[in-house]
Design a protein that fits this description.
Number of domains: 2
Number of strands: 2
Shape: rod-shaped
Structural class: mainly alpha
Strand content: 5-15%
Order of helices and strands: EEHH
Number of helices: 2
Radius of gyration: 18 Å
Bound molecules: zinc ion
Helix content: 25-40%
Distance between the termini: 55 Å
């Protein structure tokens, strides 16, 4: 039993303009769904914020930075 639970009768399509791929999840086709999860769909909000440190693509937590950078900031603060 690995069927998706989303079995509503309404026809679903990928919400990306001009995309004709079959619907997968969260309003996207399989391809765009993957991109969306990575926050790479233009004009669509990422599932989570990304770390505000430049070049860091990790998901951000409470303070707008990823766990790694948060830990570093915490260490610096504790040491200071
Ligand atoms: Zn698509
Ligand atoms: Zn980071």
């Amino acid at each position: 039993m690995s069927e998706a639970t989303e079995t509503k009768s309404a026809e679903r399509k990928c919400s990306v303009a001009n995309c004709k791929r079959p619907y997968r999840a969260k309003g996207y086709c399989g391809t765009h769904y993957k991109l969306w999860r990575r926050g790479e769909v233009e004009g669509h909000k990422a599932r989570y914020k990304l770390c505000s440190k430049e070049g860091c693509k990790k998901p951000a937590g409470r303070y707008g930075v990823c766990e790694e950078h948060r830990a570093k900031a915490g260490e610096a603060a504790a040491a200071g």
